[in-house]
Specification:
- The chain is α+β, with helices and mostly antiparallel strands and about 210 residues long.
- Helix content is about 40%, strand content about 10%.
- The protein contains 7 helices and 5 strands.
- The protein has helices at about 20-40, 45-55, 60-70, 95-105, 110-120, 165-170, 190-200, and strands at about 45, 70-75, 80, 140-145, 160-165.
- The strands form 2 sheets. A 3-stranded antiparallel beta sheet has the order 1-3-2. The protein has a two-stranded antiparallel sheet with strand order 4-5.
- A hairpin with a 3-residue loop joins β2 (about 70-75) and β3 (about 80).
- The mean pLDDT is about 90.
Length: about 210
Amino acid sequence: PIVTAPMAWEPVEGDVVREDLANLLYGLVNRCATWSAQYDSDYVISDGTVASIGGPGWRARAVQAERAGYWSRFEDRGWLLVDDSEHLFHIRLRAEKEWERTRKRDNGNPALIVPVRVRDGDGCRYCGCIVNWNARRGGRAGTYDHLRPGKGARGPDDLVVCCGQCNSTRRDDPDALQRLPAPAEPFYGEQTVELLAEHGITVPLSV
């Protein structure tokens, strides 16, 4: 509806035809959205950016884009893009990217994951299933769940072994699933035995 909105406007003398206007506005805003994603501006487009992309008539085009519903005025210095990931674009926020980097850093830190694997073995701490550390996707894929959603681990106690399905179910809700106690006799698969051996810890291979 946003893209096609200009098609229903009354033509303005001297302006482009409605079909061309719809394409022109979409092209302008789409390029601005690409800029926002590249520079982590969290959906905010400055007037200077619109001017550099839109050319001499940028002010009129910016107002027309606002009328169509692409964005709204932001603090009298720019424009805030509509968050319509289903139809137009979804821009990953700066905080999302930073959290992804933090999560990857924690998940690859031996000082954190080695004690977690010793304590939990290969069992998901939410459903108890044995995870597959080789799988990158799927319900049984092995990963680590941060007990403080959106925050880096301060130590091994902030992480637990988790399967892909429970990790997806829990997301950022700490109360979505009840956590099981640490197993008295953890299940150690071949990958975990090898990982721990690399760090000088010997555990028995579970059958």
